[in-house]
Amino acid sequence: MNYFINQYKISTNQEICSIKLPSSKSESNRLLIMNALSDGKIAIDNLSSARDTQTLIRLLKNEKELDKFDVLDAGTAMRFLTAYFGVATKKEVVLTGTDRMQKRPIGILVNALKSIGAEISYENEEGYPPLRIKPFQKQISSEISIPGNISSQYISALLMIAPSLPQGLEINIEPPVFSKPYIDMTLGLMQLSGIQFAQNDDEIIIKPQSYQKSTQSVESDWSASSYWFSIIAQSEIGKKVLLKGLKSKSFQGDNVIKEISANFGVSYKFEKTGLLLEKISPSENSLLQLDFKKCPDLAQTVLPCAAALKIDLEMTGLESLRIKETDRISALQNELSKFNCKLTEPEKGIWKLDSSNFTPKEGIEIETYEDHRMAMGFAPLALKTGIQIKEIEVVNKSYPSFWKDLESFGFELIEQ
Ligand SMILES: O=C(O)C1=C[C@@H](OP(=O)(O)O)[C@@H](O)[C@H](O)C1
Ligand SMILES: C=C(OP(=O)(O)O)C(=O)O
């Protein structure tokens, strides 16, 4: 199904719209794996409604009955379950996912697990899911060296299983390290669940130990909040929104969206129930330099937003976007070009967005490439002109109530 989103109608109602964001799928999926590794010692409040989390809940709940586990398009579920089954399954299992998941690399994680004694083989193409995983027999090494520049999810997966291994693990992450806040999130949540570790630079040492009984509460999702920063950035001065459940102290690195959006004239204030955003000034910069190395999921929010505000961007840290839900670089290039904006890589690793010719044309059709963030990142451009978003169900991966929330803010959505 597609949606035509009409220009948002300026409301005369002065009440501040309040949005209940989904909980973080990253935090939820880590806590679910830690809970499974600890035989249910971790009680989790406020698990995410995201499909990625609901899929993991379902698979873990039916672990005893299933032989084949389909994570659909959930990257964290794929990577975390590979490590979990690698050391914890009692029977042979197959782990698979969507066609796209079968093109997202996993060889680095599989090699690391095999080097400590896991028995994992590829069903089809070497280095990619589906995987066949046999019960773990014996730990043959406790040292792992792993590249940090492909996906931090491999490292998070290994960290979570480390305490359960007879010899623990010493993980050396080879720089450069991408998506580092996600590694810190894993360690932070493990620490809250009673795990101790030593860390020097890029080496992390975890001795054998048990997860402790605890109750953890999942914060709202900062990546999901980013679409609201973009909406407020593109609204008239004085427009506000309250995003419930966001906290000033967070494990989520995507909370850097609040600093990035200051460049777009958006202010924020933490209130008792969440975060209040307000458009306070026009955006003054005509060129911004941004590094997405620590926050790759924000790229699809920030680029369309900057384009609409006619701010040029010079960017680094976009490398990992090519192996996510889709090749996000190509997807952004295609869709931004529909607004006469150009995304280029003039020098290896340095990206430029030329927003100077941004032209909103009524009815532009946005392809979403089976990627939730393409739909949500481009939807705020409906503030400039009516646009059509294709395959709207994609948002269910991380933010199932996205369209309903847009409507409650004042957007008009017409089914096509
Ligand atoms: O660990 C996590 O929860 C995530 C890590 C990031 O992936 P990479 O480490 O592959 O960049 C991020 O893009 C993804 O949405 C969630
Ligand atoms: C990249 C993402 O998720 P995953 O890698 O877990 O599929 C995302 O949510 O943007």
UniProtKB/TrEMBL annotation:
<dbReference type="GO" id="GO:0009423">
    <property type="term" value="P:chorismate biosynthetic process"/>
</dbReference>
<feature type="domain" description="Enolpyruvate transferase">
    <location>
        <begin position="71"/>
        <end position="406"/>
    </location>
</feature>
<keyword id="KW-0028">Amino-acid biosynthesis</keyword>
<dbReference type="InterPro" id="IPR001986">
    <property type="entry name" value="Enolpyruvate_Tfrase_dom"/>
</dbReference>
<keyword id="KW-0057">Aromatic amino acid biosynthesis</keyword>
<dbReference type="GO" id="GO:0009073">
    <property type="term" value="P:aromatic amino acid family biosynthetic process"/>
</dbReference>
<dbReference type="InterPro" id="IPR036968">
    <property type="entry name" value="Enolpyruvate_Tfrase_sf"/>
</dbReference>
<comment type="similarity">
    <text>Belongs to the EPSP synthase family.</text>
</comment>
<keyword id="KW-0808">Transferase</keyword>
<comment type="pathway">
    <text>Metabolic intermediate biosynthesis; chorismate biosynthesis; chorismate from D-erythrose 4-phosphate and phosphoenolpyruvate: step 6/7.</text>
</comment>
<dbReference type="GO" id="GO:0008652">
    <property type="term" value="P:amino acid biosynthetic process"/>
</dbReference>
<dbReference type="GO" id="GO:0003866">
    <property type="term" value="F:3-phosphoshikimate 1-carboxyvinyltransferase activity"/>
</dbReference>
<dbReference type="InterPro" id="IPR006264">
    <property type="entry name" value="EPSP_synthase"/>
</dbReference>
<protein>
    <recommendedName>
        <fullName>3-phosphoshikimate 1-carboxyvinyltransferase</fullName>
        <ecNumber>2.5.1.19</ecNumber>
    </recommendedName>
</protein>
<dbReference type="InterPro" id="IPR013792">
    <property type="entry name" value="RNA3'P_cycl/enolpyr_Trfase_a/b"/>
</dbReference>
<dbReference type="Pfam" id="PF00275">
    <property type="entry name" value="EPSP_synthase"/>
</dbReference>
